[in-house]
Write a structure and sequence with these properties.
By secondary structure, this protein is an alpha+beta fold. It folds into 2 domains: 77 residues, no CATH class; 125 residues. Strands 3-2-1-4 form a 4-stranded mixed beta sheet. Helix 5 runs antiparallel to helix 6 and helix 6 runs parallel beside helix 9. The termini are far apart.
C-alpha cells in the first residue's frame, strides 16, 4: 500500500477553496479507503497509466508527494518516468467538445448557467493542461493552466477567468457567493473568444504533428 498527496497542496497553491487530493495505491479492495476521500488505484492500473503516458500519470510523477509507504519505497518514483504523452489532439478535441456542449446549454437555458460555467472551466483547464503536456511548455496541472501558456494563454482577462473558477468551486464544493446575473453575462460574453482560442491551439497541435510526420 502506498499513499500520496497530489494537486494544489503539493504545488503550494492552497487557499480557502482548495481541497486535499489523496491517492491510495492498493492490491484489491481495501475498505479503509473511501472513494469520496481518496482516488483509489490498483498497481496494475497505475502501470497502465504509465505505459499510456496518461496526463494523470505525468501529474503524479511530477507533483505527488509520498505520505505513507508500506515498504519504505517511493513507488511512483521507483517505476520511472511515464511514457511520452501522445494524445494531445484527441484529448484537446474531447475537452473542446465538452466546452461546446456547455456553450450550447448556457445559450439555450438560464436554469443551468452556473453549472455550465463550471463545465467551461473544467474544459478550459484540462484542455490547457493537455496542450502544455503536448508542447514544449512546462507541464501545468494547476487551476491557472490556461493562463500559463505564454503567447498561447487564454485571451480573456483575469476577472472573467475568475468567474468560471468561482462557478467551478460553487458546483464542486458549495463554497463562495452565487454569481450575479451581471457576472454571468460577463462570463458568457467571453465564450466566443474561448472557442476561437481552443480552435487556434488545435490547429497548432495538428500542424505540429503534420510537420513531425
Amino acid at each position: 500500500m502506498h499513499i500520496y498527496a497530489f494537486g494544489s497542496v503539493c504545488r503550494g497553491e492552497v487557499d480557502v477553496s482548495s481541497d486535499i487530493d489523496m491517492l491510495a495505491i492498493v492490491n484489491g479492495y481495501d475498505p479503509r479507503f473511501n472513494p469520496s476521500d481518496y482516488s483509489v488505484y490498483s498497481y496494475e492500473r497505475i502501470h497502465e497509466l504509465w505505459e499510456q503516458g496518461n496526463p494523470f500519470a505525468w501529474h503524479l510523477f511530477l507533483e505527488s508527494k509520498l505520505v505513507y509507504s508500506q515498504d519504505d519505497i517511493d513507488y511512483l518514483q521507483s517505476i520511472g518516468e511515464p511514457s511520452t504523452y501522445k494524445y494531445g489532439v484527441i484529448d484537446c478535441e474531447k475537452f473542446h467538445e465538452i466546452f461546446l456542449s456547455a456553450k450550447v446549454s448556457i445559450d439555450s437555458s438560464a436554469l443551468t448557467e452556473i453549472f455550465d460555467l463550471s463545465s467551461v472551466f473544467l474544459a478550459v483547464r484540462n484542455f490547457a493542461t493537455c496542450y502544455s503536456l503536448h508542447s514544449d511548455i512546462s507541464p501545468d496541472f494547476s487551476r491557472n493552466s490556461a493562463r500559463n501558456l505564454g503567447v498561447h494563454s487564454i485571451p480573456i482577462d483575469t476577472s472573467a477567468y475568475n468567474l468560471f473558477e468561482r462557478a467551478r468551486v460553487l458546483c464542486t464544493r458549495g463554497l463562495g457567493e452565487i454569481l450575479s446575473p451581471a457576472e454571468i453575462a460577463k462570463a458568457k460574453m467571453t465564450l466566443g473568444e474561448i472557442d476561437s482560442w481552443m480552435m487556434e491551439i488545435l490547429r497548432t497541435i495538428e500542424s505540429d504533428i503534420y510537420e513531425r510526420v
